């Protein structure tokens, strides 16, 4: 039980496969929606308040002990794009491996047995945080931050964007991230009492359709 | 407890010699090296040489396309279900060294779907001279350079040249055309690698991939012993 475990879990170098995914940034760059630090910020803000909020709530609910299979089904229901569901499960499977190595726990073993092809990544993230002794808010912070840091680092590679500008975007979004995490944790607490129907169901249609478009390309840098 | 192989679910410790059901897993050999040095051609030649005697599969790590996997498919060196392409997010060295998740998933899936396998070849995307495979992913690694990339590469060293279990200097047939000094390359490689082996190879003549295949057979014999 160490708060510093949060730093391990949130580290961009945590070996759970995230480096190969752009969080929708590659499709948005190609579509001309991300062309600069300013448009990257718009993209990240949109993702934070939609996919980020949902991911944060799923992760926090897993820490609170909501049943993983119910959360996984809730994540499926909130992810219309098959390509995105597939990416979320692949990342979940990869995170399961890293989490089992870092914070061995019966719950993570059970998850690996129940979902050999991977549960949705935010659900696994929540269970990893739970195994590490972290709080619901910690898991929500990880999930919400990842949902903006992934596109930001991917855009540095895709557009050769100045890395200081890209990181500045993340710093400016920090206060909004706090608020999204508060909402996510509140929703997760309600879900713990009332069931997964209380989880937020925000989604970004362009993220969903962009993921389908991207999955059909034969030449791309990122897996999603 | 990490080495307990009777648990359920996928192996959490990547270098485990056993699969979750307790069976011995396939030997994994990585092939790395700069762009265009002949990694894919060497993989193709190894497949042709070894496929009759071994159960084989290949994982490719293309940088931004599926061309390496498609080359192997087109050449029909193995049935398509035995070839898997991993996407690397613009960082091929990350996928084979710093975060091996996707590659581990690929090798495990191949063992599940077409296994039991004797050998899995993991080919990296073309990268720089510092790109080496994690010991968590492969049991041995081959670094492939070529004479046309400059005959000073062995002298310059770097982790691939100095640490790989086998260094292959490829395209020796081109040496006279590009002004590369093979004897100097061999001597520099020997100086950098001391007792580690070096093979000079041309896939366009002579004994082809035979020496590398012999080295692979030796590793396999040691692995299954």
Automatic annotation (TrEMBL), chain A:
<protein>
    <recommendedName>
        <fullName>Urease accessory protein UreF</fullName>
    </recommendedName>
</protein>
<dbReference type="Pfam" id="PF01730">
    <property type="entry name" value="UreF"/>
</dbReference>
<keyword id="KW-0143">Chaperone</keyword>
<comment type="subunit">
    <text>UreD, UreF and UreG form a complex that acts as a GTP-hydrolysis-dependent molecular chaperone, activating the urease apoprotein by helping to assemble the nickel containing metallocenter of UreC. The UreE protein probably delivers the nickel.</text>
</comment>
<dbReference type="InterPro" id="IPR038277">
    <property type="entry name" value="UreF_sf"/>
</dbReference>
<dbReference type="GO" id="GO:0016151">
    <property type="term" value="F:nickel cation binding"/>
</dbReference>
<keyword id="KW-0963">Cytoplasm</keyword>
<comment type="function">
    <text>Required for maturation of urease via the functional incorporation of the urease nickel metallocenter.</text>
</comment>
<dbReference type="InterPro" id="IPR002639">
    <property type="entry name" value="UreF"/>
</dbReference>
<dbReference type="GO" id="GO:0005737">
    <property type="term" value="C:cytoplasm"/>
</dbReference>
<keyword id="KW-0996">Nickel insertion</keyword>
<comment type="similarity">
    <text>Belongs to the UreF family.</text>
</comment>
Automatic annotation (TrEMBL), chain B:
<comment type="similarity">
    <text>Belongs to the SIMIBI class G3E GTPase family. UreG subfamily.</text>
</comment>
<dbReference type="GO" id="GO:0043419">
    <property type="term" value="P:urea catabolic process"/>
</dbReference>
<dbReference type="GO" id="GO:0016151">
    <property type="term" value="F:nickel cation binding"/>
</dbReference>
<comment type="subunit">
    <text>Homodimer. UreD, UreF and UreG form a complex that acts as a GTP-hydrolysis-dependent molecular chaperone, activating the urease apoprotein by helping to assemble the nickel containing metallocenter of UreC. The UreE protein probably delivers the nickel.</text>
</comment>
<dbReference type="InterPro" id="IPR004400">
    <property type="entry name" value="UreG"/>
</dbReference>
<feature type="binding site">
    <location>
        <begin position="33"/>
        <end position="40"/>
    </location>
    <ligand>
        <name>GTP</name>
    </ligand>
</feature>
<dbReference type="GO" id="GO:0003924">
    <property type="term" value="F:GTPase activity"/>
</dbReference>
<comment type="function">
    <text>Facilitates the functional incorporation of the urease nickel metallocenter. This process requires GTP hydrolysis, probably effectuated by UreG.</text>
</comment>
<feature type="region of interest" description="Disordered">
    <location>
        <begin position="1"/>
        <end position="24"/>
    </location>
</feature>
<dbReference type="InterPro" id="IPR027417">
    <property type="entry name" value="P-loop_NTPase"/>
</dbReference>
<dbReference type="InterPro" id="IPR003495">
    <property type="entry name" value="CobW/HypB/UreG_nucleotide-bd"/>
</dbReference>
<dbReference type="GO" id="GO:0005737">
    <property type="term" value="C:cytoplasm"/>
</dbReference>
<keyword id="KW-0547">Nucleotide-binding</keyword>
<keyword id="KW-0963">Cytoplasm</keyword>
<keyword id="KW-0342">GTP-binding</keyword>
<dbReference type="GO" id="GO:0005525">
    <property type="term" value="F:GTP binding"/>
</dbReference>
<keyword id="KW-0996">Nickel insertion</keyword>
<dbReference type="Pfam" id="PF02492">
    <property type="entry name" value="cobW"/>
</dbReference>
<feature type="domain" description="CobW/HypB/UreG nucleotide-binding">
    <location>
        <begin position="29"/>
        <end position="199"/>
    </location>
</feature>
<protein>
    <recommendedName>
        <fullName>Urease accessory protein UreG</fullName>
    </recommendedName>
</protein>
<keyword id="KW-0143">Chaperone</keyword>
């Amino acid at each position: 039980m160490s708060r510093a475990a949060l730093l391990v879990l949130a580290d961009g170098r945590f070996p759970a496969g995230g480096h190969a995914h752009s969080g929708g940034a590659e499709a948005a760059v190609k579509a001309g929606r991300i062309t600069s630090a300013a448009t990257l910020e718009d993209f990240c803000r949109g993702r934070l308040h939609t996919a980020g909020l949902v991911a944060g709530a799923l992760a926090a609910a897993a820490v609170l002990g909501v049943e993983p299979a119910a959360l996984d089904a809730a994540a499926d229901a909130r992810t219309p794009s098959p390509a995105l569901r597939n990416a979320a499960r692949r990342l979940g499977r990869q995170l399961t491996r890293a989490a089992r190595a870092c914070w061995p726990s019966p719950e993570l073993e059970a998850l690996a047995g129940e979902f050999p092809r991977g549960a949705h990544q935010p659900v696994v993230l929540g269970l990893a945080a739970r195994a590490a002794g972290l709080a619901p808010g910690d898991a929500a912070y990880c999930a919400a931050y990842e949902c903006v840091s992934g596109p930001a680092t991917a855009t540095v590679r895709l557009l050769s964007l100045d890395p200081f500008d890209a990181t500045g975007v993340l710093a400016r979004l920090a206060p909004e991230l706090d608020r999204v995490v508060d909402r996510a944790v509140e929703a997760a607490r309600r879900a713990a009492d009332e069931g997964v129907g209380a989880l937020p169901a925000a989604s970004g249609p362009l993220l969903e359709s962009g993921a389908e478009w991207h999955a059909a390309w034969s030449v791309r840098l990122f897996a999603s | 407890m990490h080495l307990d192989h009777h648990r359920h679910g996928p192996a959490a410790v990547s270098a485990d010699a056993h699969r979750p059901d307790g069976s011995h897993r396939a030997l994994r050999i990585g092939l790395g090296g700069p762009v265009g040095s002949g990694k894919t051609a060497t993989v193709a030649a190894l497949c042709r040489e070894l496929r009759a005697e071994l159960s084989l599969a290949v994982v490719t790590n293309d940088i931004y396309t599926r061309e390496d996997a498609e080359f192997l498919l087109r050449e029909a060196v193995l049935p398509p279900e035995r070839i898997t392409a991993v996407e690397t997010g613009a960082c091929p060295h990350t996928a084979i060294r710093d975060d091996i998740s996707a590659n581990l998933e690929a090798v495990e899936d191949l063992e599940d779907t077409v296994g039991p396998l004797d050998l899995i070849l993991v080919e990296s995307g073309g990268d720089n001279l510092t790109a080496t495979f994690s010991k968590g992913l492969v049991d041995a690694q081959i670094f492939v350079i070529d004479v046309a990339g400059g005959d000073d590469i062995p002298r310059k060293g770097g982790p691939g040249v100095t640490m790989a279990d086998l260094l292959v200097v490829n395209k020796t047939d081109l040496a006279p055309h590009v002004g590369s000094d093979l004897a100097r390359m061999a001597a520099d490689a020997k100086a950098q690698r001391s007792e580690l082996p070096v093979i000079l190879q041309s896939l366009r003549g002579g004994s082809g991939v035979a020496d590398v295949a012999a080295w692979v057979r030796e590793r396999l014999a040691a692995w299954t012993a």
